[in-house]
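Input record (one chain):
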Amino acid sequence: MSIQRREVAGTVTLGLAGEYFGELETHALEQTLRDEIAAGNVLLILDLASCRAMNSTALGILIEAHRLCEAQGGTVKLCGAQGRMKSLIHVLRVERMLESYATEAEAIASFAHRASA
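The corresponding structure, as predicted from the sequence alone:
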C-alpha cells in the first residue's frame, strides 16, 4: 500500500497502490484524504491504476471524502481503475456517486470543463 501525491492544473491527484483491506492502510488513506481537504484541496483525483483492491470500508472513505469536498465546492473523481477494481466500482455502483475516467488526463480535463460551465 502506498499513496503518491502530485498536483496538476489546480487539482491534487493521489495515486493509490496496492490493496486497502486492513486497519493501517485504510486509516492512512482516510487521514491523507482528510489532510488534503483540510488544506483546502477539494478538487481531488484518485488514480486507481495501481490499486488492486479495497474493501467496503475503504470505498466508504472515498465516498465520505467526496461528500466533504462537495460541501466545500469541490469533488472527488476516480481514474485508471482496472481489472478487479474496475469491476468492484461497477458492481457496487460507486460510479453513480463518483465520476470515473479511464486516465488521469481525462479526469483533469473534466475539471477544466467544470470551471467553464
